[in-house]
Amino acid sequence: MYLPRKIRQFVPWFSESPEESLEKAYQAALMIKLIEDEYFEQQPIQQKNSSYSDEVFSYFEQEVNRNLRIVGDNLKKFKESRSFLRWAAQDYPRNQYFKNTDLIIEKLNVAEDIISTYEKLESGKNIKQPPKEQQQKLSNIANQERSSKPRTISDQTSVLPRSLLRTLNRIKREVEKSSDAEEEVIRNFRSSRDKTAISIRFLLILIIVPLLTHQITKNFIIAPIAEHYFVQEDQQVLFINRDFREEALQELQHFEETLRFEEILGMQPEMSEAEMEEKVREKAREIAEYYRYRSLNAIENIIADICSVIAFTIIIYRSREEIAVLKSFIDEFVYGLSDSAKAFIIILSTDIFVGYHSPHGWEVILEQISRHFGLPENREFNFIFIATFPVILDTIFKYWIFRYLNRISPSAVATYRNMNE
Description:
This protein has 421 residues and is mainly alpha-helical. The protein folds into three domains: 18-157, no CATH class; 203-321, no CATH class; 337-420, no CATH class. 80% of the residues lie in helices and 0% in strands. It contains 14 helices and no strands. The chain has helices spanning 5-15, 18-39, 54-84, 94-122, 131-148, 162-175, 179-230, 242-265, 273-318, 320-335, 339-354, 358-373, 379-408, 410-420. The longest helix is centred in the middle third of the chain and has 52 residues, at 179-230.
């Protein structure tokens, strides 16, 4: 059963306020501008302005067309519903009214500029607003939103309850029979599926290939060479650093003292000095063999890690298209989270890496890195690193929140500040 055509035409007017429609058009225009800046060097999204493959460019083209449809539909909805719902608006102070008006005009200009640019490209007129001028306009709008934070009509109480409006909108989408809508859903699903598959495959390659390179080079190439030069010969350098030597001496001394202690308590029969010396000598050989293995393992780790870094670099260099798709996938995933989830992840990350208890974690990490590469532990370096590096990370976090997140998702920043307090 379908709603009458005339009723369905009025459903969008009731389901969203004019300012909500304009905000959707503005966000879609910003998404197109973001794709231009990130992947096409602030140029229109065309094949001639990129070096991507047909598959990757087709994905970008689908994203732009989808956002252009969102901009066009919501601009039309804004212009039609604003006059229809004017009686539902409340009276506002004069200064608040002009702030809202200026913001609406700026958002309209940005959305209409994007529409005009790609309409001219479609008609063969390669005219585009200078990127710097448009970027300045976007920056001015973001600054206005951060400074004034005006209350738009979408924030006010409407005549109809919002839950009822959302229900009407959902019913409209479910009962309206449109081949274009179905094709768009299928097209978006295929694009999202391909993007997810490419991103997951690329992430697995980034993880598995360096690990396999490390294990293969270490066990089958480096280990035989290292054992040939360090095990079969009577090498004079047994320990790779002084910490290994001190640990070996302490372990041997502890073993000898344990034997004498057990002998005094009668836990084992009395031994002559020759027997005691023979046991100590046998234990010394075991300790020497163990620390020889640790020294060889450290050398093997250094060379194998270098090979892994080279393999990782080659993958990154040869996979620029996959990196672009992965970045888009991560952006969509992160920005798809709720504001509370974003704030929770930010707080969790900052507390782990730069929080009150983070120095203990950094100390453990530095000790494990030293053991992995066979380096002597340097307490002074550890203290200096712990005193400076978390501070640098904290500064980067705050700058990212102020410079980037505050422009993309100001509500997430507000939620983060409230949760942090």
